[in-house]
Amino acid sequence: MSTTESIDRLRTDLGAIDHSTDARKLRSKSRDRFAQSPVLRDLLRGRNAEIFIAPQTKDELRIAVAACARHRIPITVRGAGSGQFGQGVPLSGGAVIDVTALTGVIGWAGAGKAVPRTVRALTGTVVADIDAEIRPSGWELRMHPSTAQQATIGGYIAGGHAGIGSCQWGILRDTGNITALEVMTVEEQPRLIELRGRDVNTVHHAYGANGIITEVELPVTPAWEWHELVISFPEFEQAARFSVDICNSDGVLKKVVSPHAHPLPQYFPDFAGMVPDGQAMVLLMAAVQSVPNVEDLVHANGGQIRYRCLEGKGTYGAPLYEFTWGHSMMHYQRLNKKLIGLLALYPQQDLYEAIVRIHRDFADLGPVHLEMKRIDGDLSCQGSPVFEFESQEQLADITEKLQRAGLFIANTHTPVLGASGMKPWGPKEAAFKREFDPYGLLAQGKADDVVTDDITTSTALPNSGWSYRLSN
Ligand SMILES: Cc1cc2nc3c(=O)[nH]c(=O)nc-3n(C[C@H](O)[C@H](O)[C@H](O)COP(=O)(O)OP(=O)(O)OC[C@H]3O[C@@H](n4cnc5c(N)ncnc54)[C@H](O)[C@@H]3O)c2cc1C
C-alpha cells in the first residue's frame, strides 16, 4: 500500500486529470469478473486501489504514469474490466489507471486500397467498434473475444488469448496474429516503444505487468456474410466428430465451433426449445458460401440444423458468440452458481479420440463444453467437464486426473501469471519488465520474478500449463 502522503502528492501532480478517491468508485473499478471463479470470489474481494485515474488522452496518460513513477505508486491498468482471472484487481493498492477514454481507429492500412494489411487502434477502443469501422470496406479482425461488445482491444491483448475466429486463425499468440504494439514505459519520463515481430508476445497476455499498451495493430481478413447455426446431435461423439471434421476442412470458412454435451444445451433457456432433451449441441458460425458444406457434414454425422440466421439476427437476443467461449460458463452459472470448469487444452494428436475418451471417462464428473481452436499450427480444443465446485483440494484432484488422461491444464482460478501457466514467463519477459517497469510498479503480485504471497499459495494447482513450439 502507498502512504497517504504519496497519494496526496500524486493528486497534486495530476492537476486537472480526472481522478477520484471515492470509496465506491474505487471498489467498482478494482473489480473485474473474477467472481466467476469460486476460488477467487472471496479471496480477491476487498482488494481495492487507493486512487482511480482516468486520463482522456495519451498525453494525460503519460503525465499520470510519470507521476506514479515519481511517487512509486503501484499501477493496475484497466480496460473494460471483463477479465475473469482477477488480472485487473490491484493486489497492493495504488492506482487503477482506466484507459477506456483512449479510443479510435487511428490507422487503417486498407482504406481505399485494393489490398489492406492491418488496422491500428488506440488501446481503449472497444473491439466490436473496430470491426464496425472496417467492415464497410469488406474487412474485419481475424479474431475477437466473446466479450467483443464490451472489451477494449488493449485489454484483450493484455488479458485475453483467443476467441471467435480461433478455429480458423489460431490464438493471439500464434505468429502473425498481432502485428505491432505501442507500449508506454513506467518511468519518471515514460517512453513509447514500438514492438513488432516476436517481441509482441512478450507483452501479450502479461496482465499489464511489463508495459502499458497504448496502441494495437492487428491483421485483417475478408468480412464474409456470417451465419449462425444451432445444430443438434443425438450423441456427443457425433458432435465431436462433426466439430473436428469441420475444423479440419480447410475450405470451410468458420468462426466458432462450440460443442456442448447433454444436458448443457438445456442450461441455455434460448436453445433448450431448439435442441431435443438428451441431445448434444454445436453452436456454429460459418460464412454463407460454406453453409452447404456444413449441411453435408451435419448430415454425415447424424445431426440436424435446428436454427439458422444471419449474424446477430437470432431470436436469442444477442450475437450467437455471446453463448460461447467465456460466455458459456456465465450462462451455466445463471442456473447453478457452483458450476465451473478447467481450462484444459486437448492434445492435437488423435484429437477426436481424446475428446471422446475424456467425455466417457469423466462422465460422472459432468458434461463437457469445448471450444475448437487452432494453436501452434494445429487443431486442438479447450474446455473440460463442467462440474460443481467443492473445494481447492477437489480442483487439484480433478486437475491431476485430467492431466493423467492427457490434457494440459492452465489454472484460470488465479491472478498470478506463473501459477496460471497459460503464458510462458521467461528471461525475456522478465528483462522487458526490468526495462519497461524499472520500479516494479505494474501489476504487482501477478508477474514478479518471485511471488510467494498468500494468493499464489492459496490458488495454486498441480497444473502443467501450456507450452508453445512455434511462437516461443
Ligand atoms: C463472459 C466472458 C467471456 C470472455 N470470453 C473471452 C474470449 O472469448 N477470449 C478471451 O481471450 N478472453 C475472454 N474473456 C476474458 C478476456 O480477458 C476479456 O473479455 C477481454 O478481452 C479483456 O478486455 P478488457 O478491456 O475487459 O480488459 P480488462 O479486464 O480491463 O484487463 C485485462 C487485463 O489486461 C490489463 N490491461 C488492460 N488494458 C491494458 C493496457 N492498455 N496495457 C496493459 N495492460 C492492460 C489489465 O490490467 C488486466 O490485467 C471473457 C471474459 C468474460 C467475462
CATH homologous superfamily of the domain at 226-410? FAD-linked oxidase, cap domain/gating helix
Which word captures the global form?
A: globular
Number of strands: 20
Radius of gyration (Å): 22 Å
Assign the CATH class of the domain at 226-410: Alpha Beta
Unreliable residue runs: none
Assign the CATH topology of the domain at 226-410: Vanillyl-alcohol Oxidase, Chain A, domain 3
The small-molecule ligands in this entry are: flavin-adenine dinucleotide
Estimated share of beta-strand residues: 15-25%
Structural class by sheet pairing and helices: alpha+beta
Can you give the helix content as a percent range? Answer: 25-40%
Number of helices: 17
Assigned CATH architecture of the domain at 226-410: 3-Layer(aba) Sandwich
End-to-end C-alpha gap:
35 Å
Mean pLDDT: 95
Q: Mind describing the biggest β-sheet?
A: 6 strands, antiparallel
Structure description:
Residues 44-223 form the FAD-binding PCMH-type domain. This is FAD-linked oxidase. Pfam families: FAD_binding_4. With 472 residues, this protein is α+β, with helices and mostly antiparallel strands. Among the domains are: 105-222, Uridine Diphospho-n-acetylenolpyruvylglucosamine Reductase, domain 3, CATH 3.30.465; 226-410, FAD-linked oxidase, cap domain/gating helix (Vanillyl-alcohol Oxidase, Chain A, domain 3), CATH 3.40.462.40. Helices cover 30% and strands 22% of the residues. The protein is built from 17 helices and 20 strands. It has helices at 4-14, 23-29, 38-43, 58-71, 127-134, 153-159, 166-169, 200-203, 236-248, 269-272, 291-300, 326-335, 351-361, 392-404, 417-420, 427-436, 454-459, and strands at 19-20, 51-53, 75-78, 95-98, 105-108, 118-122, 139-141, 180-184, 192-196, 212-222, 226-233, 254-260, 280-287, 304-310, 339-340, 343-345, 368-375, 378-385, 387-388, 408-410. The strands form five sheets. Strands 5, 6, 7, 8, 9 and 10 form a six-stranded antiparallel sheet that branches. A four-stranded mixed sheet has the order 1-2-4-3, with helices on both faces. Strand 8 (180-184) and strand 9 (192-196) form a beta hairpin. Helix 1 packs antiparallel against helix 4. It is globular, with a radius of gyration of 22 Å. The chain starts with a helix and ends in a 13-residue tail after the last helix. The mean pLDDT is 95. Flavin-adenine dinucleotide (FAD) binds next to strand 3, helix 6, strand 10 and helix 12. The site of flavin-adenine dinucleotide (FAD) has 37 residues, from strand 3, helix 6, strand 10 and helix 12.
